[in-house]
Amino acid sequence: MLKKCAAVLAVVLAAACASTSTKQTATEAGSPSKSIATPRLQATNYILLSDTDTLFPIDDSLSVYPFHIRGTVTNQGFFPIGNVQGHGRLCTGTDWFSIADQKVHKAGDGTPVAPYILGCAKGNTSFVPASREIVMP
Prior knowledge:
Helix content is 13%, strand content 28%. It has a domain at 45-129. The N and C termini lie far apart (73 Å). The chain has one helix and eight strands. By secondary structure, it is an alpha+beta fold.
């Protein structure tokens, strides 16, 4: 009789264990969550490519129509998050806009350092992109 009960108990336990998860999250186990995920940067400002000297705060209640770059200021300058956004006509050019220091450069001004955008310089503080792609480091 004892052997029969042990066999039935073994089958019931095996079925119960197979139908429940053995993984437990940190909060289910009663300990605080210890995430190892890297925090993601969130865009807090944007640069209008028609006025590259100025950083504008992002206001989600307003739409920004012209070409612009969303990003955040870090200890290494402005860091773009995403690609060029907005509306306008793209150009064909090899000038470049250095995003980190917000400077417009002519094609012969040396070698661009990422992050930057290729396009057409329109004076010292205005730029028209050749594409929506940002060259990242």
